[in-house]
Amino acid sequence: MEEVSILKTIAREMLSGVLVLDRGGKILYANPFFTRCFSIEGDIRGRRIRAVMGKSGFLKAVEGALKEAVEDGWMAEAEGGEIEINEKDRFFKIRIVPISRDAASGVMLFLRDITEEKRVEAIKKDFVANVSHELRTPLASIKGYAETLLDGGMEDEKTLKEFLGVIDRHATRMSRLIDDLLVLSKLESHQMPMVVEAVDIRELISSIAEGFKKQALDKGIRLELSMASALPSVLSDRVRLEQVMVNLLDNAIKYTPAAGSVLVAASVTNGTVRVDVRDTGMGIPSSDIPRIFERFYRVDRARSREMGGTGLGLAIVKHIIHALNGRVWVESTPAKGSTFSFTLKTAPHASV
Known about the structure:
The chain is an alpha+beta fold. It folds into three domains: 3-113, PAS domain (Beta-Lactamase, 2-Layer Sandwich); 115-192, Helix Hairpins (Orthogonal Bundle); 194-352, Histidine kinase-like ATPase, C-terminal domain (Heat Shock Protein 90, 2-Layer Sandwich), CATH 3.30.565.10. Helix content is 45%, strand content 22%. Strand 11 and strand 12 form a beta hairpin. It starts with a helix and ends in a 7-residue tail after the last strand.
């Protein structure tokens, strides 16, 4: 097999862009990955890079490299340079190397799409910033109240009891946050084992709702169930499904004012069981809905923290349902309420 054919096949199948230009900026070769990245159609060999790319960050980077190569003798030293560009919300890293030591021979460009790397990097930075912020507030309170007690506040029994209550509350919040972080980390890294089996979802919903009756009653909220008469079992991990229902019901009751209502409905549709948790609470603005399942995302940050939320509950719900091959979504109207819904596949041979 000819070496040229081998090299052409490698370049064609590479998951990196390859572009070869002569000294004057004429395209000698472009592999399929490169043309797909910039939505270029047809054969572009023999055309000028300026005519193909138009006004773009990529063109500016390439022309600058070519100019440097010719004027500063960069090509003569057979060294390459690496450039990072942002092109229409996509990020690329370009490595530019001379074809040979002859400055007239042109350059090869290797293009790597680093958009996903940038996205992950941004998520990590946001995560660290959010965790730091979420821990700083309770830690500051614990430290402040502890210092007050050490400075003589323990002499007053009423003050002592009050301050210890505040310290305990903030410590509990931190503990919940750390527990949720560990669960979410395991879910995102697929290290959370799922014991998938047939789960009686009617019994599970009834059991979880029974546990929330007192919380709803204390707030003056009506908690109702509406489930199909012949509800089949679902394929799920019972413990994780309980966690989903607890998170959704807890949120619904927390964000529903007195005299409001929360309804849990379950029905069968197209081989799946659909569960809806509907409330008459504050609702979610349409601009916030696309981000509502993100880690630490809150519509009303101050109110959420005041109610003891960690900002991770809905992210955990999303990851659990996705891990169980289900769907989860939300529909909401500000000031009228929200409906969080998910579907799971029915268990084999489940009766409907």
